[in-house]
Structures are given as C-alpha cells and as structure tokens.
Design a protein that fits this description.
By secondary structure, the protein is of the alpha+beta class. The protein folds into 2 domains: about 30 residues, no CATH class; about 80 residues, Arc Repressor Mutant, subunit A, CATH 1.10.10.10. The chain has 6 helices and 5 strands; from the N terminus they run H-E-E-H-H-E-H-H-E-E-H. Strands 3-5-4 form a 3-stranded antiparallel beta sheet. A two-stranded antiparallel sheet has the order 1-2. Helix 2 packs antiparallel against helix 6.
Amino acid sequence: MPTLERQRLKKYRDNVIVRDPHNFGFLSTMKSSAAYLRYLNLTKSIELSPAAPSLDLIEREVLSALALRWNKEQPILIADAISLKKIASQATLHGRLKQLKKKGFVKIVPDSSDGRRKYIQPTQKTCNYFDQLAKCVVKAARV
C-alpha cells in the first residue's frame, strides 16, 4: 500500500472512518461513533430492564418531540402535538398521547381561560425517564 494511502487511512482512523479489508466493503467507524454505539447499548439496556417503561418507537418519538418543546419552555396544546405529522398520522398520535397519559408520562391540563384548550405537561415519570437517558449519554461520552 502506498505511503500516501496509509497516511490517508490513518487520518480517517484517528478522526472518522477506517476501511476494514475484512469487512466486505462496509465502512467501520472508529472513535467518532464509539460513544454513540455505547449510548445505543446503554439505552437498549434501559429498555430491556424489568423496571423500564414499556414505550414503543412512536411513543418515544412523541416524548422526545414534546421534551424539545418543554425544554424551550413552550406550552404544548394537544392540537400542536397531534400535528407532528413527521412522526405519525393524527389518529396514531392521538392514540399514543392517550397511551402516554395512561402510562403516566404526560398529564393533560385544561387552559384556565378556555376549557376547550388542553395542554400536555410532563410528569415526574417523564423526568425520571429522561434522567436515565441523560446518564447514558454521560456514561457513553466517557472514553
């Protein structure tokens, strides 16, 4: 292998990507993705633990989208959450919000001035869930 090619591979290995001749043409990521892979393994272990909340993929996506809004301290109406069409259809989102409420992850609070408007708020269970995920991020970032 020419020296220039070795230098190029070393640069990729140290920063982003390494070509693995035994990997049948697939790219193997090194340092840049190791933390992410550890994070995935840690979150998977949380999901598989007996004490873990049973959330399906859509419920996790909905909670994540809501958390981003809660983090900005923006109130979220049910109508706003149901309009998250990138996640699922309105009917599916409505059903998942009902499930999240039933599982204790969100509470529905009516607007004090207009009873027709209902806000979605996190519960302590939601905060605990995101705390667990945050610990996974911190743990995965340690090299």
